[in-house]
Amino acid sequence: MKQSKMFIPTEKEVPSDAQVQSHILMLRAGFIRQLAGGIFAYLPLADRVINKIEAIIRQEMDKIDANEMLMPEMIPAELWKSSGRFYTYGPQMYQLKDRQARDFIMAPTHEETFTRIFADEIKSYKKLPLIVYQIQQKFRDELRPKNGLLRGREFIMKDAYSFSADQAGLDQAYDAMEAAYKTIFKRVGLNYREIIADAGDMGGKASAEFQAIADTGEDVIAYSDQGNYAANIEMAETFFESKKPSEAAGELHLVDTPNTRTVTDDAQLLQVSEHKIAKMIVFKADEQFVAVLLPGDDEVNEIKVKNFLNADSLVEANEKDVFQTLGAHFGSLGPIGADSKLRILVDRTISNEANWFVGANQDGKHYANFNLDRDLTNFEIGSFRTAKEGDLAPDGKGKLVFTKGIEIGHIFKLGTFYTSKMGGQIQNDQGKLTDMIMGSYGIGVSRLLSAISEQSNDDKGFIWPKAVAPFDVHVIIMNTKDATQQALSAQIETEIQAAGFEVLVDDRKERPGVKFADSDLIGIPIRVVVGRDAPDKLVEVKARSEETSEKISVNDLVLYLKNKFSELK
């Protein structure tokens, strides 16, 4: 491919609207252009990388007998109404009407669509298990699209679904997809972690995320510095061993805490650590008021609370409603007496210590020496605090370390959430009707493009992993007016293409400095410079990831490139 014939609009300056490195470089290197907030055009170089990512995905899907399909991007809203997600998904969903005023959505994902197809077509366990997938555009009206392809309104996604007759079939499909995803992410050259994750609004319970490690990531990953444990911060657990409090229970009594609204206020007034103030936070879970009691120096983990309650929604209660229920304002709320008015969840760490300070449900009053086993009757214990960096990992092996990551894949065991609602029943091997059991598995393809580029760059530009690089070799002609250089370049292009390499030839009438800068910016794995040594059939070869170059005879070039390419990541 001649570079003069390829649309690669490189830029010298850093775009003012780009903040993260992947976004900056993809704009500067001519990979993408923005048409609107969160909506991008993929230019030829980006398209080549995406095609290679998709090819790797298809190869690994073929290995686990997954069937590629293609569903419509615009789907009837009725499908999502039948699952209930039309009402819970929220404003991220694009909605529209046709000329007959029928409701449609632009699909953010396709669980309902695949479920409808299989509910209509599969009636017997003998047709299962099956795994199907597609690679397609998805649409989500992000409130604040940012960081280029990392959070967009239109993006490319590989979404897959398994349908099984029993739990064993789901487990087998889930394990196969998990292994395939690990291979995919390894092949595209990513440094990633598989972590325990929350299923969110997908409807299932068991799930795992794949996170590419990156400082610009929006997700926080907690992992053990000595063991294999890793989880999204929303799901991260810590080591806990139930034990009796080390000090004797003191006498419960009221203390004055005038004009305090926060744990810090209470701790300063009472001259105790913030940890010893057991704060109570009230939520509205669906239509029920629920209070969570935890140490004052901890943060409540709303995902854990929501999952414990199996609630569809969880929001912090407003002060007016709390006052009407408990008779006190924020800053004076506590569990004593509240257990008869609302459901109380107690973080398990409270049970291991004695003599807490808690709000008395009287403005400006607290109780001293609250002891859980003595002073509260109706409560439920669980893990409701957000893990902190330095906490012991849940297996007791090492401490938790935090890092940031970019979510690149997510796998779910959906169970019967969709099939039970949408008529997805089959006759099992005993002749009885039963719901098909589903799994859902996604990879953000366009996000992968961004995640790889976040990890594979330097101050000059991209350093693409060889498996997904837009080209394998970049041949640069130093002087396009030199007939010898032109002839040798043509010979090299023919020979290395015949050896299986994809070649981009910079035949532009540009200064050498411009060509070298663009070459570094684009980031093709190996550069071959045809210059003043062309009469001697010598070229200069340099790997993009290395600082030094070598002079190589054209007669030895193909073998040299094969050996060098095999060494690269």
Mean pLDDT: 95
- Ranges where pLDDT stays below 50 over 5 or more residues in a row are none
The span between the termini is: 24 Å
Question: How many helical elements?
Answer: 14
Can you tell me the CATH superfamily of the largest domain? Bira Bifunctional Protein, Domain 2
- Label the structural class: alpha+beta
Q: Compute the number of strand runs.
A: 31
Q: What is the CATH architecture annotation of the largest domain?
A: 2-Layer Sandwich
Radius of gyration over alpha carbons? 30 Å
How is the biggest beta sheet arranged?
Answer: 9 strands, mixed
State the name of the first-level CATH class of the largest domain.
Alpha Beta
Helix content: 25-40%
Q: Compute the number of structural domains.
A: 3
What is the CATH topology descriptor of the largest domain?
BirA Bifunctional Protein, domain 2
What shape does the CA trace take?
A: globular
SS strand fraction: 25-35%
GO molecular function, one term: ATP binding
Protein name: Proline--tRNA ligase
Keywords: Aminoacyl-tRNA synthetase, ATP-binding, Cytoplasm, Ligase, Nucleotide-binding, Protein biosynthesis
Family: Belongs to the class-II aminoacyl-tRNA synthetase family. ProS type 1 subfamily.
